[in-house]
Design brief:
258 residues, alpha+beta, 14-stranded mixed β-sheet, two-stranded antiparallel sheet, 16 strands, 48% strand
């Protein structure tokens, strides 16, 4: 059905985001210094995270627009996260939940409620298939925090800052605007010839005086050709409010073919 194909398309796109954001990297962090050639780039990176949220608990509801292959549709998403422990994503359409995705430090679970199927993999299973997975990297992706290994190159422009980092087979490129907020990022996998480009917008100040980008657009390219796009805009956000974050495989569900 259209709904089932939509869910599987979204999971495929989301899983690619997991893969391209899942090698171990340091988290970059903003600066009150002027954007000029004499400003300390290291100081900029070390201070950036002071402005971006890093809650122990995160809860967000948002709207998703998916453009993938022959699918162009709107969905609703709910994201719940306990820092450094677990993340739960629930997807619904027209009030009907069609699937869930769960990630902990060592487990990934996908639930397809339309076909009554599930996918379950441990960190060890993923490693055997040469699939990198890192929960901290995924949570940084959700919160809008850039990550890097080492800084290979950087540039202070008149109204922007950009830097480049390379850890084979991954390449990372980030751009910050004149307000010193991250606007664009690009993560590339050289051997697979795949790339995720992201645009962050609509930064809002939360109750803790930290900033959060409510709107994001992710574009997936393979061999230089656009494969799909996901737009996500959060409407409701709660920080540091403990919630139950768990997932169960319902009785009677069968395992997805791998």
């Amino acid at each position: 059905t259209m709904v089932n194909y939509t869910f599987r398309s979204l999971l495929l796109a989301a899983f690619l985001l997991f893969l391209l954001s899942s090698c171990n990297r340091r988290t970059a962090v903003d600066s009150d210094e002027a954007l000029d050639e004499t400003a300390s780039f290291e100081a900029f990176l070390l201070r950036y995270s002071d402005r971006i949220i890093q809650p122990d608990w995160f809860f967000g509801k948002g709207n998703v627009k998916l453009d993938y292959e022959q699918i162009n549709t709107s969905l609703n998403a709910v994201v719940s996260m306990k820092r450094d422990e677990r993340i739960l994503l629930a997807i619904s359409k027209l009030g009907l939940e069609i699937g869930r995705a769960y990630a902990s430090r060592d487990t990934v679970i996908l639930i397809d409620r339309i076909r009554k199927q599930y996918f379950l993999a441990s960190g060890e299973d993923l490693e055997k298939k040469n699939i990198p997975f890192n929960l901290q990297s995924l949570q940084s992706l959700i919160l809008g925090r850039p990550e890097y290994t080492v800084v290979n190159d950087y540039h202070f422009g008149q109204d922007s800052i950009s830097f480049y980092s390379f850890m084979p087979p991954f390449q990372f490129f980030y751009t910050f605007d004149e307000s010193r907020l991250m606007k664009h990022s690009r993560i590339s996998h050289e051997t697979e010839k795949q790339q995720i480009s992201a645009h962050l917008d609509n930064y809002v100040e939360m109750d803790n005086n930290k900033l959060f980008a409510q709107a994001r657009a992710y574009e997936w390219l393979k061999n230089g050709r656009k494969q799909g796009e996901i737009e996500l805009e959060f409407g409701k956000i709660e920080l540091d409010v403990p919630r139950s974050i768990s997932i169960n495989i319902p009785p009677g569900y069968t395992e997805m073919a791998r």
